[in-house]
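Supplementary Note 2. Why include the ligand at all?

Several targets in our set were suspected to adopt different conformations when bound, so apo predictions alone were not considered sufficient. For every target with a known small-molecule partner we therefore ran a joint prediction. The input for 2-phosphoglycolic acid is given below.
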Amino acid sequence: MRRPVMAGNWKMFKTQAEARAYFSALVPLVQGSTHCDVIVAPPFTALAAAVEAVRGTAISIAAQNMHWEVEGAFTGEVSSGMLVEAGCRAVIIAHSERRQFFGETDETANKRVKAALAAGLTPILCVGELLAEREGGKTEEVLERQFQGGVAALTGAEFSRIILAYEPVWAIGTGRTATPEIAAEAHRFLRRQAAASFTPERAAGLRILYGGSVKPDNIKGLMAQVEIDGALVGGASLKAEAFASIVNF
Ligand code: PGA
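The joint prediction is reproduced in token form.
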């Protein structure tokens, strides 16, 4: 059985003070939620406050991005070691907004995944097609390229430590969720890719999250699909009550 994961991605929202207020509301609401892993990804500046606020709970804190080099002259970037020291346990890699607005590629996704693993972080690797790609019948081609590019040259043991997130770009922040069936079809395709590249056992253990307009009122239907192992939640993760009801679907 794959243990579900509910992950919240705050994107560029919340100050340190807002992060503290959020966790004082969230912690009591998910204290008894032992059925899944709970991860929250604040912006870099709120990481330390978030780590402090979840100390002693089962909630893990993730970063939203990282550079692949250990250190260097890379203005504006943050390394894996810095995230580990700040208390992060996971890191989102190659979110579609990073790909769309900041020029990230499958090649840099792969470098980040490897560096995160080497530092002991859990990479949450994001893949997903654009609307034009779906309408042009290219969904599987895009998912195959992004998946294979992202996990290239990982050992089986390394692969077992990643979390994959399927996030169709047309469903992110648009209120247009993929139906549970559409999401499950993509998840099945990704799991077949994993089986072919690694082993069926490793593929069976891979946790694949769905992301894109996940809300308290659609999480149940999504989680009813055996292929869907959890959610990567943007907008609805910003309110502690909404995220808690997703966690406690
Ligand atoms: P959304 O974002 O839930 O606001 O659609 C999802 C994501 O970008 O991870």
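The two ends are 18 Å apart (CA to CA). The pocket of 2-phosphoglycolic acid is lined by residues 9, 167, 172-173, 211-214, 232-236 (CB under 6 Å). Comparable summaries for the other entries are listed in the accompanying table.
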